[in-house]
Design goal:
With about 210 residues, this protein is α+β, with helices and mostly antiparallel strands. It has five helices and eleven strands; from the N terminus they run E-E-H-E-H-E-E-E-E-E-E-E-H-H-H-E.
């Protein structure tokens, strides 16, 4: 999955301890990371290599590979508790690898379980840009009905006698402008519309 807003690629995986050797899995990591060519990546999955057993050869081999791509493993808690005979084992085999740790807000082990594993979660710190077709904007409602009522009010519902009888041109201009603005705001309330990519709000031909 590619998160376009923050240019991060999210990859999920499962490495079977019985059918996929560590060497084959590392070859797979090399192949994928070469494809990404240094791009930001978050790997999430079950690797079946205990991250608490730092002395094991499997852990060391994996750790060297991660470091070669500037990746770190962010999950620290226990992700699987299993019973083997009379004993219980606690391992961290569900992991998150990333080369963009600074872009991660949080990663943790959850209380919820998936089978005999604890679920894990990571949060990426970025804002999703809203697609232009879903953006909304507030504009004046220049419907034909509102225009008819506006024109009728200016023509038949307004008293211009004080303006007509006034000798002060500046006062008449300010008075007429104030009357028009009040009438406009009264007859054309705001409405919310969806905004497409090339949206330009302009008065309708009928209003003009």
């Amino acid at each position: 999955v590619k998160l376009k807003g923050c240019k991060i690629n999210v990859c999920s995986f499962y490495r079977s301890g019985n059918y996929c050797s560590v060497e084959n899995f590392i070859d797979y990591i090399h192949y994928c990371m070469r494809k990404f060519k240094g791009k930001k990546v978050i790997w999430i999955g079950d690797i079946n290599i205990d991250q608490n057993n730092i002395t094991s050869s499997q852990y060391k081999t994996l750790d060297m590979t991660l470091k070669s791509y500037n990746m770190v493993q962010t999950i620290q808690g226990i992700t699987r508790i299993a019973k083997r005979g009379d004993k219980y084992t606690q391992t961290t085999i569900d992991v998150i690898f990333t080369n963009c740790y600074a872009d991660m807000a949080h990663s943790t082990v959850l209380q919820e379980r998936i089978g005999d594993h604890q679920a894990i979660k990571c949060e990426v710190s970025y804002q999703v840009p809203m697609s232009p077709k879903f953006e909304k904007v507030n504009i004046k409602n220049h419907s034909k009905r509102n225009i008819r009522q506006f024109v009728s009010f200016l023509k038949d519902g307004s008293d211009y006698s004080q303006l007509i009888n006034c000798d002060d041109i500046e006062a008449v201009t300010l008075g007429l402008n104030d009357h028009l603005v009040r009438a406009y705001n009264q007859h054309f309330p705001m409405k919310t519309v969806k905004k497409h990519e090339n949206f330009i709000h302009s008065p309708s031909p009928e209003l003009l």
